[in-house]
Amino acid sequence: MKQEELLKALIKELFSLNELHQEYQDKDTHYAIDSKKQGNTLAITITLKENKDKKEFEKWCEQLDDDIFNEVWEALSQEDNLHSLNEIYESDNYKQVINRFKLKTREIVNKRIKELQKIIN
């Protein structure tokens, strides 16, 4: 019943406006809501906008060898609290974590390459 009342109030409010553009963000979920009134018709469009940076980063991480991924997180956890890194990743400053993770990954992979080159030389 309460949802029905909220929906009625929302529709009444939207009909009182000629058009509306509003954006909402909750962590990684971002919505754009547009409504346009034409006569007795109200068109509402809700668009889900995903964080492309995070999606690409997470896809990049999936391609990493499990051992390398774990070594990177272990190294980062020695430098910082993983809980803090997670909080930063969930905030608007998420690029800091992405950049640090990629930098640490490069360091570890380069170290492994040098070690392997010693073996084959």
What features would you describe in this structure?
The chain is an alpha+beta fold. The chain folds into 2 domains: 2-50, no CATH class; 52-120. Helix content is 63%, strand content 23%. The chain has 5 helices and 3 strands, in the order H-E-E-E-H-H-H-H. It has helices at residues 2-16, 52-63, 66-79, 82-89, 94-120, and strands at residues 19-26, 29-38, 41-50. Strands 1-2-3 form a 3-stranded antiparallel β-sheet, with no helix packed on it. Helix 3 (66-79) crosses helix 5 (94-120) and helix 4 packs across helix 5. The longest helix is centred in the C-terminal third of the chain and has 27 residues, at 94-120. The chain is elongated and about 80 Å long. The model has no long low-confidence stretch (mean pLDDT 87).
Strand order of the largest sheet: 1-2-3
Q: What percentage of residues falls in helices of 4 or more residues?
A: 55-70%
* Structural class label: alpha+beta
Number of strands: 3
- Rounded to the nearest angstrom, the radius of gyration is 23 Å
State the end-to-end CA separation. 75 Å
Strand content: 15-25%
Give the total of domains.
Answer: 2
Give the mean pLDDT.
Answer: 87
- Spans with pLDDT under 50 lasting ≥5 residues? none
Describe the largest sheet: 3 strands, antiparallel
Write down the secondary-structure element order.
HEEEHHHH
Give a quick set of tags describing it.
121 residues, alpha+beta, three-stranded antiparallel beta sheet, 63% helix, elongated
